[in-house]
Amino acid sequence: MAIEASKHKTTQRKLRLGMVGGGEGAFIGAVHRIALRMDDQFELVAGAFSSDPARAKASALTLGISADRAYGSFQDMATVEVARSDGIDAVIIVTPNHMHGPVAKAFLKAGIHVICDKPLTTTVQDAEELVELVKTSGKLFVLTHNYTGYPMVRQARAMVAAGELGVIRLVQVEYPQDWLTEAVEQTGQKQASWRTDPARSGAGGCIGDIGTHAYNLAGFVTGLKLEALLAQLTSFVPGRLLDDDCQILLRYQGGARGSLWASQVAVGHENGLKLRVYGSRGGLEWVQADQNYLWFTPFGEPKRLITRAGAGAGSSAARVTRVPSGHPEGYLEGFANIYTEAALALRAAIDNSPLDPAVVYPTVQDGLDGMKFIAAAVESSNNGNVWVKLK
Amino acid sequence: MAIEASKHKTTQRKLRLGMVGGGEGAFIGAVHRIALRMDDQFELVAGAFSSDPARAKASALTLGISADRAYGSFQDMATVEVARSDGIDAVIIVTPNHMHGPVAKAFLKAGIHVICDKPLTTTVQDAEELVELVKTSGKLFVLTHNYTGYPMVRQARAMVAAGELGVIRLVQVEYPQDWLTEAVEQTGQKQASWRTDPARSGAGGCIGDIGTHAYNLAGFVTGLKLEALLAQLTSFVPGRLLDDDCQILLRYQGGARGSLWASQVAVGHENGLKLRVYGSRGGLEWVQADQNYLWFTPFGEPKRLITRAGAGAGSSAARVTRVPSGHPEGYLEGFANIYTEAALALRAAIDNSPLDPAVVYPTVQDGLDGMKFIAAAVESSNNGNVWVKLK
Amino acid sequence: MAIEASKHKTTQRKLRLGMVGGGEGAFIGAVHRIALRMDDQFELVAGAFSSDPARAKASALTLGISADRAYGSFQDMATVEVARSDGIDAVIIVTPNHMHGPVAKAFLKAGIHVICDKPLTTTVQDAEELVELVKTSGKLFVLTHNYTGYPMVRQARAMVAAGELGVIRLVQVEYPQDWLTEAVEQTGQKQASWRTDPARSGAGGCIGDIGTHAYNLAGFVTGLKLEALLAQLTSFVPGRLLDDDCQILLRYQGGARGSLWASQVAVGHENGLKLRVYGSRGGLEWVQADQNYLWFTPFGEPKRLITRAGAGAGSSAARVTRVPSGHPEGYLEGFANIYTEAALALRAAIDNSPLDPAVVYPTVQDGLDGMKFIAAAVESSNNGNVWVKLK
Amino acid sequence: MAIEASKHKTTQRKLRLGMVGGGEGAFIGAVHRIALRMDDQFELVAGAFSSDPARAKASALTLGISADRAYGSFQDMATVEVARSDGIDAVIIVTPNHMHGPVAKAFLKAGIHVICDKPLTTTVQDAEELVELVKTSGKLFVLTHNYTGYPMVRQARAMVAAGELGVIRLVQVEYPQDWLTEAVEQTGQKQASWRTDPARSGAGGCIGDIGTHAYNLAGFVTGLKLEALLAQLTSFVPGRLLDDDCQILLRYQGGARGSLWASQVAVGHENGLKLRVYGSRGGLEWVQADQNYLWFTPFGEPKRLITRAGAGAGSSAARVTRVPSGHPEGYLEGFANIYTEAALALRAAIDNSPLDPAVVYPTVQDGLDGMKFIAAAVESSNNGNVWVKLK
Question: What is the ipTM of this complex?
Fold first, then answer.
């Protein structure tokens, strides 16, 4: 239990968090709250849970937030919290996408660290401004690309880095879902409504919602930088305003190639994120729904099943693992690992103490990369499926 | 997020817990602490984490327990806590097996509810005394047979109860592991030491450690009562004092039959708990390591894959589920479900309010059944593998 | 294509076969005919395809047998064929079980080699007489326990023999089906009728039909001899005269133990033969329906997937394999391997030439072992599930 | 056993075949010979097994061909056989790719039916000439795109045709292998040598060898016609003259889209052909290595496992199936189905009798389509990965 053992090593107190968005009924807010509690590093002490002040207060009450820290607006929260001696150490942003940027700016300017849901913003320009602001503010910015927290994703990344696959040649990544097979956004389904609305989601639909996860995962595991892409985005469902399927060819710096497929109309898939990486000496495969397993084939040898915390899993997986092999971990544990890494980074920042070099988490730069990826894919698709260089 | 939404419905405060055993380095203590935090229903405020007072204090400090509630003995804790106005609502017992009984008795006698790890005790007589004491005390007793908390186990139970399998004929349950393939108890491995020591584990080794889990799961899903068993317990590893493999034939009341296999020397298995149930109209299969899936075959139709929170999963699964289908849940979520059910039961008991009839959790009676199962298996094996009736 | 390359090495002609039973509409006769054609070692030139002479002739015509070798009785066939200069080299017996013995005796006495479907006979005494007759006749007797022909079964056997699993401790074998879930024998279904009729199938139902396959496979792979068994045979379907489910505990000579489960009422299983073997150093698992794969776990290392003709598969598998890895082989290829081994043995016997020591096939002795296994299981079950020694 | 039962219905004799290419040591020749024997519809009576006359004779002898029908050249074989009263009914062409066209022309011109391995030729022009010649000759031309013979591929095709998936939106097909991960063609490996040699394989490497299989399979199952493609062909291994990896975007007539990936450097894959099809009402998935299974998800319902000959499989699968469900069929059975369909078509053609409309097999037109596909992919890749219309 490496994670629990490390608790309180630096500051001997829990880190204090506030949340913007994520009131009652919001799926992702609840996920963040479970994740932050998992390893007992944090307490949630403040919130502006809704843009509707009454709803914000009600949510705060339900969540056990004291009345004086239940804010009606995120601006108030930034102003008041920074002035309190027991003010929040960091803010969690779980609003709809188009508000990520404005909220993050307000807290960074107030000198408060940020933990933000993906995608970073809705435009590349907004993302670039945010990157700049993070730099000048000197504050931490943790982007919750949660799949990077899975132990076997860490294991895969370590194996690639150690050269166990040789030179990487091919990256095949896919993220099929089927929940938008029919026009549910026209029936008032809330999750579908904002995800298919350009005003709230930006220029990308499927590409922004899940394509970015696939892209981020591939880069995280392989360490490769994308040089150019060629995309075909499609809206299969009549009347849909954003893409619900993305077929993308990939060219990485250094010569690796691959493809990315994300879809919200692939009947039979729930959250079918799958990554396959092939090198000159080996290949590996990982499937999110069965996250405790990693398949590895050294060229010319039988395929091997590496299990989380089992034989063949190394220290990169072990440090973000809680239970023994054969007892599965899930999505929430992976999400919590992002929070635990954030806790280590926040304590080091706040205490001005050294940070374990093994700590890794997605940053504002990853968020900007994701926005550029979306923009390039949309540009390529709109221009007749041509190669577009990532800038 | 049904679970989060239900928070504070009754008492508008977190439930207060103390823990006996489970200090630093103890695996199962840490699991219980994560589980109790998952849905934010509890706070851990007191502890007697070790029989060594110095170690108990150190653990308490690390776990953020205030000094006045870090106890050197469980007896002190029972006496002092019951007298506090903010005393604990329930105690968690995560000591070695032979201490479960004495600790439980102390807290029940003090009028404090109990959450206890399995197995209940080390002898049937102790277990029977405890059942009697629970009755007379009027207190709740929650036994953490955690596999009953998995959503697809709940789903399976509901399907059997609804008659989707017809009359149950066969129950095939197995729990293979391989961690005792070699004589690690002779090398000082702590987990192996007490689990292979009759003084600390009772008369059963493998049968008590994991055979009881398999037995409990089969009964939970099918609702069947075991009438008799015939067991062959074996110690394959030279010098081992308790069984490391159990082959058991099962006869249930009403005519169903089956077999149970548990092993700690089955190379290639981590925690291979698997249940298969066959009836006159259908069959189902569930594997703990892949807990989000349930296979169901209606006779004469194609096999179906029911996924947690996906198509085909009903309300029994939904009420103990946190994330959407395709995003896996794991062992800790299943364990947390036992705690969340306990929270609902504790609030109803403390507030004298009605309890949702859907709430289900293993009790002291399940613990007694498990002890009788172990005793019968040992008796059968010692007497030449003869049928022994469950009393 | 080692098999094809070896063709005609000894006699430069195809081996001539006759068939008893297996006329039109009989499933297993057609399987034998495809199997004997697969590697072009045999030609089918004579037959007594039915006890009804008219039907026998009609089947012969359809199968391209010349009129003078279409026999109305097996006795005629034995008498006439042995006298022909181009008479059959061997007879294939695919009659209902109770006729295996009489037909085999007739041909052995005539000096003709025998290829016979399992089970050998319907009683142990008949089987013992046949063993004796084979000895005195000096003829070959090949029993088509076809699962022993699968390449990965050969691979598993070779790995056990080479000590890759260490000392074998546990054998878990099962063969679940579901086709007798309902009382189809009462609806005139032909396959079900004779298989549930003691007069035609002997004292065992499920145990004789598929339990013997499981038993034979376990012995073939491990090389272990069964010392004793304890069986619980059940007829779940009302009115059924023979067992449709068998739960058996196993004790092998030398200390290995295990269990065997065979069932014809396990809804969701087609031909679910599965073998798992565990030793002091490793474990392996093989599933008939996915016969091209063998799972092997060296203790303390990741599980490995050995594929037929792929990395990790050795010469034992290679010599009975036709197509490259990744292109599946099936049931018919496994069955054909028995015939190809038989061809090698027959040529060596006929030509009085040396036989490749790698050749292996089930014999009349395996058939007798199977009959003893059935008898012991029935005896154990009838006497209250007691241990019965194999004689 | 529908297939065996149908034997001799038309001509009451076996069909006579000759073979060009496929002498000893040639993998695919042996596969064709097993396939033609499987259902006893054919006899191999003539051959020009090698362009080296001595080797041709030796192979013929080994294969049991009479000396007067062991030809030194395919031209001789065509001339002589057509003049014999017992001449061959059809020729099998299993030469290297560049000889398919010349040999086929010689036999078609002689008035002999043709069964030919894929790809059809090495250029589109050659293929078009062959299509024309087939038309004018009035002879049958069977292209052995063997994967179309698998029962579950037939099942999938029937389900799409019956509208069970609704309107098809997406086709994801892949065929990864790993056997060319290293430059084995430089070590004298024969299979690798000709497959990576433009002179013998044509302009496509991986695209021609296995990409065409994937393309053909997708079209066979969906019935969709490809409108345009955009391809990125890569040679990852230094010094390799042809592509060893293909990434292709697909646009079908009517609006369906998809992608095709074929690779010979994807470490861990043997013959990983996999097809996924998604429509407005359902999705399905089929994997060649596990050919007995078909996964089908009706939108909003649990995923179903349809097994060959099991529940849910219809008549399209049943008519090309030999053994019951749960007993696997393999590659050779699928290949044999092409031959059995060919036998039905040949008998109808020779006897001038009606042909069962259920009979389906790949034709010279499919071969031309494949050549156009290869040409378009090479053109797209050479011109900077632009859309190329299929002509």
Answer: 0.94
Task: Encode pLDDT of C331-347 as tens digits.
Answer: 999 999 999 999 999 99
- Alpha-carbon distances, residue C272 vs B247, B304, C175, C275, C285 (angstroms): 20, 17, 5, 10, 13
Cα distance between the two ends of chain A: 42
Instruction: Name the stretches of chain A with pLDDT < 70.
Output: 1-11
Name which of B302, B307, B311 is nearest D306 (Cβ-Cβ).
Answer: B302
pLDDT band for B11, please (50, 70, 90 cuts). low
Question: Which tens digits make up the pLDDT trace of C149-202?
Answer: 999 999 999 999 999 999 999 999 999 999 999 999 999 888 888 888 888 888
Supply D368's token pair.
């031309």
Contact D267 A279 (CB under 8 A): yes
List chains touching B (3+ CB pairs under 8 A).
A, C, D
Does D305 sit within 8 Å of B311, measured CB to CB? no
Give C10-65 pLDDT, tens digit per residue.
467 999 999 999 988 778 999 999 999 999 999 999 999 998 888 899 999 999 99
| Signed CA dihedral, C159, C164, C168, C169: sign only | negative
CB within 8 Å: B303 and D304: yes
Strands D90-94 and D168-176: unpaired
Q: Which burial class, exposed, middle or buried, applies to D350 when counting CB atoms under 10 A from its CB (0-12, 13-18, 19+)?
A: middle
SS3 at position A192: helix
pLDDT tens readout for residues D305-341: 999 999 999 999 999 999 999 999 999 999 999 999 9
- Per-residue DSSP letter, B224: P
Q: In this complex, do C302 and A304 lie within 8 Å of one another by their Cβ atoms?
A: yes
Residue C283 distance to chain A (closest CA, Å): 14
Kind plus residue range of the DSSP H or E element containing B106: helix B97-110
Question: Looking up tokens 């089969």, which residue turns up?
Answer: B218
**Domains along the sequence of chain B with CATH:** 2-147 (3.40.50.720), 151-290+292-324+367-389 (3.30.360.10)
pTM: 0.96
Look-up of token digits 């026209």:
A186
Chain D CB contacts of B305 under 8 Å are: 302-305
Query: 10 Å Cβ neighbour count for A241?
Result: 12
Q: How many CB atoms lie within 10 A of CB A217?
A: 26
Counting Cβ atoms within 10 Å, is residue C253 exposed (0-12), middle (13-18) or buried (19+)? exposed
Cβ(B26)–Cβ(B95) below 8 Å: no
Rounded Cα–Cα distance for residues D248 and D21 (Å): 33
Query: Which of A116, A123, A383, A120 has the alpha carbon at shortest distance from A229?
Result: A383
Residues from chain C contacting residue D62 (CB–CB below 8 Å): 7-8
Cross-strand bridge partners of residue B233: B246
Contact B302 D304 (CB under 8 A): yes
Task: Compute the Cα dihedral for D216, D220, D225, D230 and give only its sign.
Answer: negative
Distance separating alpha carbons of residues C47 and C19, to the nearest angstrom: 5
Residues 6+ apart with CB under 8 A from B32: B19, B22, B92, B94, B115, B117, B144, B335, B339
| Strand order through the sheet with B42-48 | B42-48, B15-21, B90-94, B113-116, B141-143
- Per-residue pLDDT, D11: 60
What are the helix (H) ranges across chain A? Answer: 2-5, 27-38, 53-62, 74-83, 97-110, 124-137, 151-161, 190-195, 198-201, 206, 212-222, 315-318, 331-351, 364-382
- Which residues of chain C does D333 touch, with a Cβ-Cβ cutoff of 8 Å? 330, 332
CB–CB contact B304 D306 (8 Å): no
